[in-house]
Amino acid sequence: MQLRITKGHGTGNDFVLFTDPDAAVDLTDERVRWLADRHVGVGADGVIRAARASSIEGTESTTAVWFMDYRNADGSVSEMCGNGVRVFAKYLLDEQLVEPDADGAIEIGTRAGTKRVVIGVDEAGADAFTVSMGDFTIGDDLALVSAVGLDVARPALAVDVGNPHLVVTLAEESELSRLQLAVAPQTDPEPVSGANIEFTVPGDIDDETGEITMRVHERGVGETLSCGTGAVAAAMAMRHWANDAGKLDTAPNTWLVRVPGGTLVVTADGTSATLSGPAELVFSADVTLD
Fold first, then answer.
1. Which is it for strands 164-169 and 196-205: parallel, antiparallel or unpaired?
2. Range 177-199 average pLDDT
3. Which of 35, 73, 227, 266 is catalytic?
4. At what angle do helices 228-245 and 82-94 cross, to 10 degrees?
5. pTM of the shown model
6. Tens digits of per-residue pLDDT, 213-225?
7. Of 182, 194, 198, 202, which is least surrounded by CB within 10 A?
8. Is 227 an annotated catalytic residue?
9. Which of 267-274's residues contact partners 24+ apart within 8 Å by CB, and which partners?
């Protein structure tokens, strides 16, 4: 089977994208793993199929025409991807599959609901994409996370951003750099559906803006250079802790999250958040799946 694919990334979190309006391609786990394989395939953290929402079961409630059918590198289905949805938005625009509305926005269907993406420009004049991520929730109980490079297991806060996350805070960036995330961290208790795990170090924080340095181990993928939903989870966890600590008059709503692949901006509004950052398409090619 011949397939026209495009490679794209958002702050180094990379994806293979292709258009399949009627979801006719048999996107097996094996095919996803081959596309994502960095040695014998194209190479990516995930695979995104652009399908009409009407062709995907369970999307009857979405107002979006196009659905982001997202798969992790191991073939498993994921609810949402914050970097992926920005790259998907750029792909839809470049492929002329959508037109922005009067506000410069498009709607995208995901398994975590319909996401509105506003297209703008950054200070350097490059495309910048802001995604309305929807509501987030913070769990009541702490889990314990163990990882190679940590001296002892650390408590983690559960944050749901349409997909599950566990956020660990560390005191020093030297601790962050010692982590060996090629080995999957262990959690106690183990989340039923697994979780993305963010290891964070707080930076400068005042009443208006906070800074975080982060590394992440993604469920079904491994360590990635960036994770958009993870950045939101990390920022909202840090905001929650800052509120609890009572050291600031008001915990900041704007957070700069520095990941190995760049910087993302998370802005909170009550119990919802937006995510802003770049998206780039690198190349297109024809590949043979079988």
1. parallel
2. 95
3. 227
4. 140
5. 0.93
6. 999 999 999 999 9
7. 182
8. yes
9. 268/235, 268/236, 268/239, 271/135, 271/136, 271/137, 272/132, 272/133, 272/134, 272/135, 272/136, 273/133, 273/134, 273/136, 273/161, 273/232, 273/235, 273/236, 274/130, 274/131, 274/132, 274/133
